[in-house]
Amino acid sequence: MSQLGADAMAERDCRASEQPPLWRTGRKKCFLAKEVIYRESDTVDRAGLIRSGLVKLLSYLPNGRARIVRLHASGDWLGLEGLMGETYEHTAIAVDDVEVRYASICSVQRLVHDNPSQMEYLLQQWHGNLAQADRWISDFSTGEIQPRVARLLEFLAELEYGQASDRVELLTVCEMAEMLGVTQESVSRILATFKRGDILHKESDSLREIYRLDAPRLRQEARK
Residue 123: is its pLDDT beyond 60? Predict the structure, then answer.
């Protein structure tokens, strides 16, 4: 693991130490890659804290096409809408192997009632979700496709390995197209351009799609 990856994990471990014991000791459930964690409009009876892995949230258009609208990594929460009595807003699917610690919505509500300071912690989580939604609109949904792909790579590197990372693990071309709302062919063509130009350089000893980034040049592409 690179130092950046270690730093990102240390930051998440630090955040985990600040979490209420309810989620550190909650019931553990593991999901395999591509497994559905919950479906849109299902009743929310529990909140989950992601301990490892990556989760994508999908929204389906009237024509049945899926659009990835958010990504959650270790330290993020699932199902907070249940505190408002809402159903799940999206369908959640494991991108890779995922571990989640669960607590019932009733337990969370009791925790907040007995210890109001925990509400600040939950509000921080909601604020993070809102900030990511804003970034999704401004960075991934507007402008020319090539800068949007570059901004998506920056986002994935930060999510996976921490800020200022020079390393990224690519999602599938299909997943990246669903995030950007473009065709798979467009994403594939731009990734090939970045690889030919050595903006992306595959780690030779990795069996996964892990690439080194030429961060300054990628930043130039992202700001076009």
Answer: yes
